[in-house]
Amino acid sequence: MLIRGRCWKFGDNIPTDQIVRSDRVLLPMDEIVTHVLENYNPDFAKSVHPGDILVAGKHFGQSSGRAIAPKAIKATGVGAVIVEYAARLFYRNCFEIGLPILECTGITEMVNEGDLLSVDLVKGVIRNESTGDKCRAKPIDPFLMAMLDAGGLIALAENLSEQQ
Amino acid sequence: MGKTFAEKVMAKAAHLPETTAGQVVDVYPDLIMSHAASWRCIQSLEKLGTDQLYDVNRIAMVMDHTAPARTAKTAADQKLCREFAKKKGITKFYDINAGIAHVVLIEDGHIRPGMVVIGTDSHSTIYGALGAAGTGVGFSEVTATWVCGYLWMRVPQSIKVIIDGPLALGASAKDVMLKLIGALTADGGTYCSIEFHGSYVRGLSISERMTLCNLAMELGAKFAYVPPDDVTRTFLREHGVDPLDYEEIYPDDDAVYLKTVHIDGSQIVPQIACPHTVDNVKPIHEVSGIKVDQVFIGSCANAKYEDLAEAAEILKDRKIAPGVRLIVTPASRKVIERIVNEGIFDIFLRSGAVITNPGCGACAGDGGVMADGEVTLSTANRNFQGRMGSYQADIYLASPSVAAATAIRGVITDPREFLVKEGQYI
């Protein structure tokens, strides 16, 4: 699976409460999506294009395990999230809802906001087409890759039960 | 080579002879907890189109985050859960009168040593207080585990935290954890199992063990663990658990840890987590004097009986400062029963506090929120911006003693002023 898009870059230790603010979690998704990460970059939700790539630092998605955070990122059209490393529950929730996420040490040094990136999810290879740099992320376990291909855990389970 | 608690408990729940940190295994949890998000799990189940549950006795449901309902939508969500539990025969269903899931399940003897417990709440690490492995998962995963009985887990690496006691005057389990979170930072335990050892932990009350394990989540931990001992066994017996119904699990002496951290409890002073992150921790003298508008004594971290008793000791025969709002939200109905019986309810009432129904309350932003520019000192476990109402508001986190002292003075106050003057510990 190849994903190609512009880089949106965020910092370290961003909590789920700030990906979608606590006072917005119960809004309908079409409203939530216009406010994603608003406190860090108000332009992000307005200007993000389908397939763009969200890059963040360490411990991305810390705090509450609410799956609305990765869901809202997915709803913006972001094609993949690449982080130095993710908070445990956020990492799990990304696969559960079908948002590709890669952990890659050094990614924040290799890319700048607006760079054109391409990501090969299966190989874990990330290319910065703007600078020519490339690096390799921690590979995704095959069974998690299957979950992503299906579009998330429930979709995977639906597919499996249909096959039976 | 020896094994950690996490490696042993994962092997047991995965029905394997052994596991090693880093390995991914299919784990059969002994208990699957869902709270206010249960309606989402039920909707996912409907989407799956199956009616078969793996084992209904492993399911617990607690209506805690937004209780009682304030909107028709929440009321409908809770109705869905109530009807589902009845239809499926879920006996561990707790309605809006019970309290916070973590505390209720421990009080009612549903958590036992050696269990693996998953929950739709990140603070599920709290179950380590009884030597169980508890961790948070998303709601679709709960749904899938209801049906399949298992889920994937990566066996975590472990960090050994050795705390030497006793603690200094005015310090509590909350201060120990804030100190640790400040030192290791919010990602210092990401994906790890945190084991608590040392002379402070041995013989410690279950309430304080719950505070330790609850706050381990704020290090990014997957599990937390306190080795079971006689305190654990007595607690379980008193809460109706038969010793034959559990298996205590201990790490080996030569288990391999990612790192070992030592804490000297005698050197710990009251600690405060300052806005807007839990690891922005300062000793109390650096922040005392900051004016507060509201004090919240609540949450799964610090609203158990012992926590309320600790606050009441300082509030006894005193009034809160004019203009300050003190909100007390006991963790469970059983906690309320006990504070009523022991006169602690009256102490809060006479001090000028408002006492709410049991549950998550203001910690989850359900009531007790702030206006722009306001400040709350809270005994909860999170202080991220916007968690309690306005984005232009500050949350400080501290122990129940600090909360009580602060409510009386109206500014962040070192509780030792009261404890020493009363001569209680001299």
Report what the structure shows.
The complex is a heterodimer of chains A (164) and B (426). With 164 residues, chain A is of the alpha/beta class. Helices cover 34% and strands 23% of the residues of chain A. Chain A has a single domain, classed as Aconitase, domain 4 (Alpha-Beta Barrel), CATH 3.20.19. In chain A, helix 7 packs across helix 8. Chain B has 426 residues and is α/β, with parallel strands linked by helices. Chain B has 2 domains: 259 residues, Aconitase, domain 3, CATH 3.30.499; 148 residues, Aconitase, domain 3 (2-Layer Sandwich), CATH 3.30.499.10. In chain B, helix 6 runs parallel beside helix 7, helix 9 packs across helix 11 and helix 9 packs parallel to helix 12. The model of chain B has no long low-confidence stretch (mean pLDDT 96). At the A-B interface, helix 5 and helix 8 of A face helix 2 and helix 5 of B.
Question: For the report, how would you describe the main beta sheet of chain B?
Answer: 5 strands, parallel
Taking pLDDT < 50 over at least 5 consecutive residues as the criterion, the unreliable ranges of chain A are none
Q: Proportion of β residues of chain A?
A: 15-25%
- Just name the CATH architecture of chain A: Alpha-Beta Barrel
CATH H-tier superfamily of the largest domain in chain B: Aconitase, domain 3
Summary keywords:
heterodimer, A: 164 residues, alpha/beta, Aconitase, domain 4, 34% helix, B: alpha/beta, globular
Strand-helix topology:
The complex is a heterodimer of chains A (164) and B (426).
Chain A: E1 2-9, H1 16-19, H2 29-32, H3 42-47, E2 53-60, H4 68-75, E3 80-86, H5 88-97, E4 101-103, H6 107-110, E5 116-120, E6 125-128, E7 134-136, H7 142-150, H8 153-163
Parallel strand pairs in A: 1-2, 2-3, 3-4
Antiparallel strand pairs in A: 1-5, 5-6, 6-7
Chain B: H1 5-13, E1 24-27, E2 31-34, H2 38-48, E3 59-62, H3 72-88, E4 92-94, H4 101-107, E5 116-119, E6 133-136, H5 139-148, E7 151-154, E8 158-164, H6 173-184, E9 193-197, H7 206-215, E10 223-225, H8 230-238, E11 259-264, E12 271-273, E13 281-283, E14 294-297, H9 305-315, E15 325-328, H10 333-341, H11 344-351, E16 354-355, E17 375-378, E18 394-397, H12 400-409, H13 416-421
Parallel strand pairs in B: 2-3, 2-5, 3-4, 5-6, 8-9, 8-11, 9-10, 14-15, 14-17, 15-16, 17-18
Antiparallel strand pairs in B: 1-7, 12-13
Helix pairs in contact in B: 2-3, 2-5, 6-7, 9-11, 9-12
